[in-house]
Amino acid sequence: MFTRTLRAGRRVVSPGLRGFSGAGGGGHVEDAFERTDSPNQASLYVHWPYCLRRCTYCNFNKYIPGENNDLTMTECLQRETDTLLQLSQVSCITSVFFGGGTPSLAPASTVAAVLQTVSSRAHLSGEAEVTLEVNPTPAGKSRLADYRRAGVNRFSIGVQSLQDEDLKTLGRDHSSRQALQTVEEARRLCPGRVSLDVMFGRPGQSVASWERELRELLRVCDDHVSLYQLTVERGTQLFKQVQRGEVAVPAEDATAEMYRCARRTLRQHGFLQYEVSNFARNKAVSHHNTSYWKGRQYIGVGPGAHGRFAPLGEGGVVREARTQTLEPDVWMREVQQRGHGTRRRIQLGRRELLEEVLVMGMRMTGGINHKHWAMFSPRLGLLEAFGSSSEVQELLQDGRLILDDRGLRCSWDGLVVLDSMLPALLVELERQIGQRLPRDPHAGQTE
Questions:
Q1: Which of 32-41, 242-251, 334-343 bottoms out in mean pLDDT, i.e. has the lowest?
Q2: Is 0.85 topped by the overall pTM?
Q3: How many angstroms separate the first and last alpha carbons of the chain?
Q4: Distance of alpha carbon 79 from its chain centroid, rounded?
Q5: Which strand (E) or helix (H) includes residue 112?
Q6: CB atoms within 10 A of CB 38
Q7: Cα separation of 195 and 363, whole Å?
Q8: Higher confidence at residue 382 or residue 54?
Q9: Of 124, 270, 352, 383, which one has the greatest count of Cβ atoms within 10 A?
Q10: H or E stretch at 443
Q11: Mean pLDDT of 275-302
């Protein structure tokens, strides 16, 4: 269950998918983001689907390009951005995230073009967070200054490991030295706004070796760290290697101890955990990802991207879960023909929306406060939804869950076993919605 809780945070491109405070109180990084959700605002995710190679563990939507079609891809990203901004009728984009794939393979002119399209349709503040994921190769490092000039002001660097042998096992195309050089350059360009992605539970890794690696990481990192447990996904090269007995991953109790060790070590060095996988100091949280966990609207552009917004431009008033066509060539043809490559639209009824707010919100150390929940559920409060369940009461008495005048959240120990608690919360939510609220006519309508 620990594994699934961490895995759910791996990539927010497909959800459904930074201080700590437990029962004793403490600072809350999330409080800086508490504001009323508005249909006039959204964040934007832009997916660049191409990679030069596929890592052994990866099952994300990515492709090895057969030819250079950067120009066509750029034009289609611009056009779909324009179409979906018109459809959503949002007047302000609060943050932009370029993910992939390997977006550090995209020309800087692509980033600049998309941002220009956004600015032509909506307000994009000069202070808005604009993040780009970077593969820390020499080529990726060499483009950082160009991305900065194009409008990127935050880099998320896929370090994954500081052990060269582990990087080879994972199929990464960079060395630890190259990663450290990339981090140094990124910090020079965007001081205080560089995040490092690091993976644990790797083949052959021990708790002791992970502790040593964390100490080395803390000597070079900036103010944000994302920790992800390696998961062996069916269909990947790593899965086949594990099945054949060629490599072995650590047992679950060992990976659980690695996670506990990382939480302790990062806290000792001034990092506040604000989400299951994310840690920040000096308030350097990811504004973009926080908007997902807060249940705010977001627009997904590019092959395989996901979005959650109400299509006000065509008369819609209900938020939809939208998925873009996966395969890049097919997606580009659809965008050229009709302005967007939306493959699937599902209207989110009351239950579906509240389930997403619950599941995503409980990933944050601050959980869900009463005011935030009331924005989505004005007639069924947190106390009414969860206060009478015997199963929930047991979690509260065990100290894994906290429900008080601040809201609903996990304790420090409870966050580790969030996955085991969610079923009880979801069952109770569905029961209370059925008993207390009228039937929802929009639930689960698909187009």
A1: 32-41
A2: yes
A3: 34
A4: 24
A5: helix 108-121
A6: 14
A7: 19
A8: 382
A9: 124
A10: none
A11: 97
Cα distances (angstroms) measured from residue 251 to each of 58, 206, 248, 256 = 20, 10, 9, 9
Q: State both tokens at 438.
A: 């009228």
Mean pLDDT of 309-322: 95
Phi, psi (rounded to 5 degrees) for 258: -60, -40
The tens digit of pLDDT for each residue in 45-95 reads: 999 999 876 666 666 655 656 677 899 999 999 999 999 999 999 999 999
pLDDT tens digit string along 177-192? 999 999 999 999 999 9
* pLDDT at res. 226: 97
Which residue matches tokens 């431009």? 313
Assign 404 a pLDDT band (cuts: 50, 70, 90). very high
Tell me the two tokens of residue 154: 């935050």
Query: Quick one: which of 142, 228, 147 has its CA closest to 193?
Result: 147
Give the whole-angstrom CA distance, residue 262 versus residue 205. Answer: 14
Mean pLDDT, residues 384-400: 95
- Could you tell me the two tokens for 385? 């939804």
Bridge partners of 304, per DSSP, are: none
**Rounded CA gap, 111 and 114, in Å?**
5
Q: Are 19 and 290 in contact (CB under 8 A)?
A: no
Joined together, the tokens standing for residue 163 give: 């052990």
CA 196 to CA 68: how far, in whole Å? 29
Strand ranges, E, within 164-249 = 194-200, 224-229
Q: The tokens of 210 are what? A: 């992970």
Q: What is the mean pLDDT of residues 94-118?
A: 96
Contact 444, 346 (CB under 8 A): yes
* Residues in Cβ contact with 257 at an 8 Å cutoff, skipping those fewer than 6 apart: 207
Amino acid at 289: N
Q: Which residues pair with 346 in a beta bridge?
A: 321, 446
Query: SS3 for 254-311, per residue?
Result: HHHHHHHHHHHHHHHCCCEEEECCEEECCCCCCHHHHHHHCCCCEEEECCCCEEEECC
Task: Report CA-CA distances (Å) from 138 to 142, 156, 179, 182.
Answer: 6, 16, 9, 8
Q: Which helix (H) or strand (E) holds 154?
A: strand 154-160
